Amino acid sequence: MFLSVVIPTYNRQPILEKCLKALEVQRLSDSSVVRDYEIVLVDDGSSDRTLQWLEDHKAELPHVRVFQQEHQGPAAARNLGVEQANGDTIIFIDSDLVVTENFLQAHANALLEGEKKLGGDRFFTYGAVINTCNFRNPTAEPYKITDFSAAFFATGNVAIAKHWLEEAGLFDASFQLYGWEDLELGVRLKKLGLQLIKCPTAVGYHWHPAFSLKEVPSLIDKEIQRGRMGVLFYQKHPTWEVRMMIQMTWLHRLLWGILSLNGLLNERTMAPLLQWLIDLGKPQLALEIARIFLNWYNVKGVYEAYAEMRS
Q1: Which among 97, 102, 212, 213 is positioned nearest to 156, based on CA atoms?
Q2: Are 50 and 127 within one domain?
Q3: Is residue 84 domain-shared with residue 225, that is, in the same domain?
């Protein structure tokens, strides 16, 4: 088994350093089926010091192969990574994920066990993702109930045979804004009969800065983008399941409308409460409460994009 870890990155140099260094110190067992691995890093037009840092530290990163493209979004970047990958098995992670030293071995073990159990490779393994804002020591964060994900195929931590990605047609590069490109590919993989096998021992720690009010405008913009991309997802797969995923139902409209008091609870009116929680040292709780109006922006973005599509 030859593993290709495909990572798209865009302006994330500080955490990317930790991501790559963790992948360079992987421990493979003496009897491992993994004969080798590579890290296929695709820079999606970064304007920070990413490329300079990679050049300065290439001697410390023997497994890393770097490719560049103009800024086109993560879907196009992952496609380029898959096309350039030498491995028979692709592992997708994001460039703000820091993995444990047995990460690759855990995925390899799960892939081997899954093949024995199912009699073939019509499946993929999905590892655990733990969210953290601890930059100094991201892997110290414990698992939280908010880290649970019910996604079928999410590229934060997943391993799959390369030929299934090629047969499914790779990612749809028209998903250029934030969100849904991986779950849309998941729908096509499910149609090919692939199953999900959980691999909780392949742990990655997803780092993001501690929530602050200055982040709110960008988070709102992401929710609006996610709404627009959700409608694109629905155009490709007009099913009730997708409508539920993208929150384009009367139930979601009613739920977030009630919880946000039809938008009266928003980034301005809730700012004092959120700042109070942040000052108490509870930024994660503040973020969860902020999701009341963030989800309302998402639902509004979905319906606005859907109306534009139909007009």
Answers
A1: 97
A2: yes
A3: no
